[in-house]
Structure formats: structure tokens, C-alpha cells
Amino acid sequence: RDGRQPGRLHYRLPQDAVMAGLRFGLCLAAAFVLSALAILGAVLGPATQTGLFERALLSTVNREAVQADEAQLRAFARETMAYLRGEKPAWEPSLSFAVPEAFSEHMREVRGWVAAAPGVFAVGGVLAAMLLALAWRLGGLSRRGCAAGMLLAMGLVAVGLLWALADFDSLWMVLHRLL
Fold first, then answer.
1. Quick one: residue 50, left, alpha or beta (phi over 0 = left, psi -120 to 50 = alpha)?
2. Residue closest to 74 by CA, chosen among 93, 98, 46
3. Beta-carbon contacts of residue 99 (< 8 Å; ≥ 6 apart)
4. In principle, which of 9, 128, 133, 140 could form an S-S bond with 30, CB 3.0–4.6 Å?
5. Quick one: angle between helices 70-84 and 101-137, nearest 10?
């Protein structure tokens, strides 16, 4: 006897279906990780470029309100980016007004994120490679799994973009609370 109870319906998935599902899940996870890393790189790269930050400051900051001229704003951008990239031990912007302590604390947090990014890229890359290698050993990669993982990541980006278009301030607040 096979140990089954009489009168009970028993269903067992064929091993091929189980393996296909496992490969799909592994490829989905790997593609999601790789897509997330690409998105992180697309955000982090420009976010630490002095020239972009200078242009943003010059085009958006009310110079009279902060009592800073163009040269001071450019210096502020250089000092801030050097600090975020770890080139300066402390963030002490040379402005004519005091920077609130809460904002200085925020800049320390951002510096921590920037410093953690290379490790995140390394761990994420290794994780994705391991997931793909395991899927390969189990019979090959799943194109549908890879596509689903990429689409999942892009879907989350689309939701974020729509949220930003609808109410950027609330998105910004939630991101800063979470991170």
C-alpha cells in the first residue's frame, strides 16, 4: 500500500512543473534584484554629481531669501557633494544662515546611504548571479520569470512616478520616513 487514506483525493504535481515553477521564481527574484540595482544606480549616479546639484540650486533657490549669491550656492553644492561622497569628514556649509540641525542629521543619513551603495551593489550582484546560476542548474533560465521580475520592478517605479506626479510632497515625506 502507498499509505494514502481511502476516499481522499491526492494530487501530486509532476516534477517538471515543480522545477519550472522554481526556475520561474528564481529568475523573477534575480531579475527584480538586477532591475532594482539598475534603478538605484540611475538615481544615485546623478544624485552625487556636483554640476547637477549646482544647476538645481541656481534654478530653484530664492537667493534673496537665503542671502546667498551664485558663488555661495556653487560653493554650497561643492561642499555638500564632497561630503556625501565621503571626501570631507564633516558637512559644514559656508552659508550666511544657519542650517537646521534636523537637516544636518538628514545629510548624515544620506551620506550613509551613499557610502552603503557599493556594498549594496556587490551583494545584490552576487545574489542575482547565485539565483540565476541555481536556476540554470535546475534546467535553465525562465524567460517569463526574468520578464516578470523586471516588470515588477518597473511597475513599482511607475507607481512611484504616478504618486510623485499626483502628490510629490507626500511621496517625499514617506520616502524620508522609510529611509
1. alpha
2. 93
3. 93
4. 128
5. 40
Longest CA span, the chain: 89
Residue type at 157 in one-letter notation = V
DSSP string for residues in 13-59: --HHHHHHHHHHHHHHHHHHHHHHHHHHHHHHHHHT-HHHHHHHHHH
Q: What pTM, to 2 d.p., does this model score?
A: 0.76
Is 80 exceeded by the pLDDT of residue 140? yes
In sequence order, what are the residues at sequence separation of 6 or more whose Cβ sits closer than 8 angstroms to the Cβ of residue 138?
19, 22, 23, 26
Quick one: pLDDT band at residue 6, thresholds 50, 70, 90? low
pLDDT of residue 102: 84
Find where cell 537665503 sits.
66
Which one-letter amino acid corresponds to residue 106?
A: H
Residue 101: other Cβ atoms inside 10 A: 8
CB atoms closer than 10 angstroms to residue 84 = 22
Q: How far apart are CA 107 and CA 84, in angstroms?
A: 8
Closest CA to 142 of 32, 1, 39: 32
